[in-house]
Amino acid sequence: MVWLELFVAGIFETVWATLMKYSHGFTKLGFSIATIVTMAISILLLARATKSLPLSIAYPVWTGIGAVGSILVGVVLFKDALSPLTWGFVALLIIGIVGIKMTTGS
Question: Phi, psi at residue 71, to the nearest 5°?
């Protein structure tokens, strides 16, 4: 269950980063409020996960999920162009996240 909470926390990190982009520097009230709410959810879920998982595991996985999610959102929603080499490094991020999960005892 703790890994599911951590995964959802990472998804909410992607959501708040996306909403922050839509807030245009916190100048659009609705998107600004949504950013803050989803940011709080993400951090609260991370805090819950760190009750059971070491910080050295939970934090890198959380940020990794958020990073990969934000990259995908950038490509899909904002038409960001990534080079093949950049995609290779994205793959390494995913491998790292999966590797951390697979090598922990919990």
Answer: -60, -45
Kindly tell me if the per-residue pLDDT of 106 is higher than 70: no
> What number is the average pLDDT over the span 81-94?
97
Residue in the block written with tokens 């080499």: 85
Where in the chain are the domains? 2-102
Which residues contact residue 26 at a Cβ distance below 8 angstroms, ignoring those fewer than 6 apart? 20, 32, 35
In which residue are the tokens 């162009």 written?
A: 81
Residue 81: phi and psi, rounded to 5, are: -105, 125
DSSP assignment letter at 106: -
The whole-number pLDDT of residue 104 equals 87
Which pair of tokens denotes residue 70? 């934000």
Q: How far apart are CA 14 and CA 20, in angstroms?
A: 10
3-state secondary structure of 52: helix
Q: Please state whether 29 falls in left (phi above 0), alpha (psi between -120 and 50) or beta.
A: alpha
pLDDT tens per residue, range 22-73: 999 999 999 999 999 999 999 999 999 999 999 999 999 999 999 999 999 9
